[in-house]
């Protein structure tokens, strides 16, 4: 019998106490209305994880404004009070099962595949994104060439993150997660080849992490200390899976060190395999580097569905384990572990079959 007691320990994310160490990872869905309003099927989807025993749920990326932040058609938003009102049904239903829920706030930047508000995309610099759009989210062909975002627009984007966080708080969420990963806008600022700026937001690693820090500090100031604020960080992108920080551990020291002083409650690290070394120069994982240099609570994501792997990553410094494919295959993952039941393997055909409107994937 595997020792699973560590999974059922309570964890604090800022001032928010979570009943166990297991979270549902943020996973893209395109099942809102065309106006970005939460549907009843979304309420059922999130509630099913709460019923299954997960201590925390982090929602899919949710767009923050009516300008350039939307990533997909039928993506939910938090740009309007009407959208926030609809999200209340999700928060209320999840809370009835004793689970906490955070909203992930997303600005797509250069990787939009569908935006009802704008035909153009914006990025730190006018650099053609690598790869092609994701077909399972109804995309086709190369990404659009983005326009370089202005300093005035950067100020507006910070304000949009703040307003979105305030709406999430009004909707009953316990916290928000700032999406700073996977090639979307904030990560595009962090990434060398997508950020060719020569102002204070470009060049050195300290400059490239500046916008992430500003967003974190502004959100924290707006929502107060009792509302959890975290950030998701990755090296790889949805369109560039093999990308690594060129400065390796020195970059990790700067990035996590600055984020650790930005008023955040946690850092959510996502890698294709969380237990693999972050760089080819050492055996240290990105989770360990985040813990060492950030000094905050750490959520780890990346093929951790097996209990032994979850235990290993906790021993390496993770406080919470976030499951994507494992959660999709087992909405009751926690209860199955608790009862010693076998887990279902992730079957993309089975999980993704229902309709395009209900497609799920971990991004």
Automatic annotation (TrEMBL):
InterPro entries: Aldolase_TIM, NADH_flavin_oxidoreductase, OxRdtase_FMN_N
Segments passing through the bilayer: none
Keywords: Flavoprotein, Oxidoreductase
Ranges of residues in domain NADH:flavin oxidoreductase/NADH oxidase N-terminal: 7-343
Pfam family membership, one: Oxidored_FMN
GO molecular function: FMN binding; oxidoreductase activity
Alphabetized PANTHER family for the sequence: BINDING OXIDOREDUCTASE, PUTATIVE (AFU_ORTHOLOGUE AFUA_2G08260)-RELATED
Protein name: NADH:flavin oxidoreductase
Species, as recorded: Terribacillus saccharophilus
Organism placement in taxonomy: Bacteria, Bacillati, Bacillota, Bacilli, Bacillales
């Amino acid at each position: 019998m595997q020792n699973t007691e560590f999974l059922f320990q309570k964890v604090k994310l800022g001032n928010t106490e979570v009943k166990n160490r297991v979270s549902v990872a943020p996973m893209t869905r395109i099942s809102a209305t065309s106006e970005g309003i939460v549907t009843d099927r979304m309420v059922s989807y999130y509630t099913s994880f709460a019923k299954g025993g997960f201590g925390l749920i982090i929602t899919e990326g949710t767009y923050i404004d009516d300008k350039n932040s939307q990533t997909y058609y039928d993506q939910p938003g938090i740009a309007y009070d009407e959208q926030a009102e609809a999200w209340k049904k999700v928060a209320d239903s999840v809370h009835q099962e004793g689970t906490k829920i955070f909203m992930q706030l997303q600005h797509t930047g250069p990787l939009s595949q569908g935006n009802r508000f704008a035909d153009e995309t914006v990025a730190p610099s006018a650099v053609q994104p690598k790869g092609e759009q994701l077909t399972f989210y109804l995309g086709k062909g190369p990404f659009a060439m983005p326009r370089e975002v202005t300093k005035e627009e950067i100020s507006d984007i910070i304000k949009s993150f703040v307003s979105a966080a305030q709406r999430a708080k009004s909707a009953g969420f316990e916290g928000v997660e700032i999406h700073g990963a996977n090639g979307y806008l904030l990560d595009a600022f962090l990434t060398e080849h997508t950020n060719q700026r020569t102002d204070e937001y470009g060049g050195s690693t300290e400059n490239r992490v500046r916008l992430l820090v500003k967003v974190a500090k502004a959100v924290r100031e707006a929502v107060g200390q009792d509302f959890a604020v975290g950030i998701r960080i990755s090296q790889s992108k949805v369109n560039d899976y093999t990308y690594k920080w060129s400065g390796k551990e020195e970059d990790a020291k700067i990035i996590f060190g600055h984020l650790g002083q930005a008023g955040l409650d946690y850092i959510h690290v996502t890698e294709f395999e969380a237990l693999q070394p972050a760089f080819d120069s050492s055996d240290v994982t990105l989770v360990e580097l985040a813990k060492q240099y950030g000094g905050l609570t750490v959520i780890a994501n990346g093929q951790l569905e097996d209990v032994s792997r979850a235990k290993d990553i906790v021993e390496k410094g993770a406080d919470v384990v976030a499951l994507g494919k494992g959660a999709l295959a087992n909405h009751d993952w926690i209860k199955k572990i608790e009862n010693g039941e076998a887990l279902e393997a992730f079957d993309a055909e089975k999980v993704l079959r229902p309709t395009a409107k209900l497609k799920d994937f971990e991004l």
